[in-house]
Specification:
binds flavin mononucleotide, 6 strands, Rossmann fold, 6-stranded parallel sheet, alpha/beta, single chain
């Protein structure tokens, strides 16, 4: 098939975010030539409001994100762990992406091939946040990669001074994750 388009979203707004760095590494070490776009609008997504969740009333930035997700062949989501769960900004955006009250526009996340990963400087490496993220994708019926699990614990040890991912094991896992995502994208295209 044509080059797969991946929309990558980091759940961290921090400028030196390890999770955002992982997405940059995904672009750099991408084994399959996927076109990976890193979304940078998360900070400006307003709080979810069901009264505004219609094609006419939705904030423009939300409609733009929904269009980007619909146009992407797959999603790559890097989540930090905040208080054993995913950051509110990420959950908020996913809520805006999960609905179609009109039953005509389509659900952006429905059956969307999706890969998740996460980093934390602790020994737990976002594992609890990733489990919480998997739960979100149950309701949306997204097609989430199960293995490999990319749990980047002690994440501060895995980048050089310029923020480049240097840890070979993490690079290998990231590449395997992208290959697994491609397998799901190919299967979706064949359906
Ligand atoms: C509000 C808040 C809550 C946090 N809760 C957890 C937590 O439950 N588990 C954990 O391992 N790290 C926790 N951390 C530490 C984050 O994992 C760490 O700040 C991480 O680097 C954030 O990801 P980023 O580098 O992509 O910004 C928390 C940090 C913040 C700011």
């Amino acid at each position: 098939m044509a080059t797969a388009k991946i929309l990558a979203i980091s759940g961290s707004l921090r400028s030196d975010s390890h999770n955002t760095r992982l997405l940059h590494a995904a672009r750099k070490f991408n084994p399959g030539g996927q076109d990976i776009e890193i979304y940078d609008g998360l900070r400006d997504i307003p709080a979810y409001d069901q009264d505004l969740d219609t094609p006419e009333k939705r904030p423009a930035i939300v409609n733009d994100l929904r269009r980007r997700v619909q146009a992407a062949d797959g999603l790559l989501i890097a989540t930090p762990e905040f208080n054993y769960s995913i950051p509110g900004v990420l959950k908020n955006a996913l809520d805006w992406l999960s609905t179609d009250w009109t039953k005509t526009e389509g659900l952006p996340l429905h059956r969307k091939p999706t890969a998740i990963l996460g980093a934390a400087p602790t020994n737990f490496g976002s594992v609890r946040a990733q489990l919480a993220l998997r739960q979100v994708f149950v309701w949306t019926d997204s097609d989430v990669v199960v293995k490999p699990e990319v749990i980047v614990f002690r994440s501060h040890e895995r980048f050089d001074g310029e923020g480049n991912l240097t840890d070979e094991i993490t690079i290998g896992l990231l590449q395997d994750l992208l290959k697994a995502l491609q397998t799901k994208i190919d299967a979706a295209a064949a359906r």
